[in-house]
Amino acid sequence: MSEVEESKITAEHRAMIGIKSDPIEVTPKAEDASRMRDLLGDKDPRYSDDTGIAPPYALAMLEPGLPPELSPRVLSSGILTQTEWKFMKPIQINETLSATTQVISIRDRLGGRYGYSVLVTFQTDYLDENGDAVAASLRTINQFDRGDE
Q: pTM of the prediction?
């Protein structure tokens, strides 16, 4: 494994920071929320079928990807290494939310077990029909070069 002595992140990659994707509509459905609760064995009464409230993790299956033109690709492979969620209010079943995603950070990771890698952090904001924040997620992708390429 050769050592990288300087960053492979270019000005073009950094220029993608802060550019928001077009909004995508996501709508948590009752049948999907119920299926996820059953799969996870979630018996929390706050999210039972008669409440009209989706469990917070229902948004995870609806989370949009970032368009390739807004996603910096510095190295050939990548893996999701972290996801963090923040919820501002309950998510209603059948409530259509508007989701926009953007790159908020791109940085080098030097050394470590697998050598040079690049950490790219995306933020997705979910707004209700009034434009009020409902939830947000932060996802970090660790980009790396596979040894066999």
A: 0.87
